[in-house]
């Protein structure tokens, strides 16, 4: 199993759009083979940021997720909404 934690920091004034984007990905991501869970949360230490916790069967499933059509679309949309690139932490095991 692999756990991925992504941190998305919204540009000032785009917090609601980043929230909508993170929440819109729940259903499509959960439908992907190998996805065990996908949970977005507001960062309690930084209300302008979101933490997205994902659990996957394996690294291969997660890698396919990153190139799935809805993620490619999300990455393009997020480019204008985020204050810098998302940070990603992966924990295997």
The count of strands amounts to 4
- The geometry reads as globular
What would you call the structural class? alpha+beta
The average pLDDT is: 92
β-sheet strand percentage: 35-45%
Largest sheet: 4 strands, antiparallel
Strand order of the largest sheet: 2-3-1-4
Low-confidence stretches: none
- If helices are DSSP runs of H or I spanning 4 or more residues, what is the number of helices? 4
Fraction of residues in helix? 25-40%
Termini separation comes to 5 Å
| Rounded radius of gyration (Å) | 13 Å
What order do the helices and strands follow? EHHEEHHE
Short summary of the structure?
This protein is an alpha+beta fold. Helices cover 39% and strands 37% of the residues.
Please give a structural write-up.
- Helices cover 39% and strands 37% of the residues.
- The protein is an alpha+beta fold and 93 residues long.
- Strands 2-3-1-4 form a four-stranded antiparallel beta sheet.
- A hairpin with a 2-residue loop joins β2 (35-43) and β3.
- α1 packs antiparallel against α4.
- The longest helix has 13 residues, at 69-81.
- The model has no long low-confidence stretch (mean pLDDT 92).
Give the helix/strand layout.
Blueprint lengths: L1 E8 L5 H10 L1 H5 L4 E9 L2 E11 L2 H8 L2 H13 L5 E6 L1
Antiparallel strand pairs: 1-3, 1-4, 2-3
Helix pairs in contact: 1-4
Question: Which features does this protein show?
Answer:
four-stranded antiparallel sheet; 37% strand; alpha+beta; 93 residues
């Amino acid at each position: 199993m692999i756990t991925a934690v992504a941190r998305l920091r919204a540009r000032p004034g785009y917090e609601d759009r980043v929230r909508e984007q993170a929440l819109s990905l729940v259903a499509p991501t959960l439908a992907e083979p190998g996805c065990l869970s996908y949970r977005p949360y507001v960062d309690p230490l930084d209300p302008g940021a979101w933490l997205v916790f994902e659990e996957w069967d394996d690294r291969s499933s997660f890698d396919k997720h990153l190139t799935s059509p809805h993620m490619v679309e999300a990455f393009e949309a997020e480019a204008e909404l985020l204050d810098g690139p998302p940070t990603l932490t992966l924990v295997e095991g």
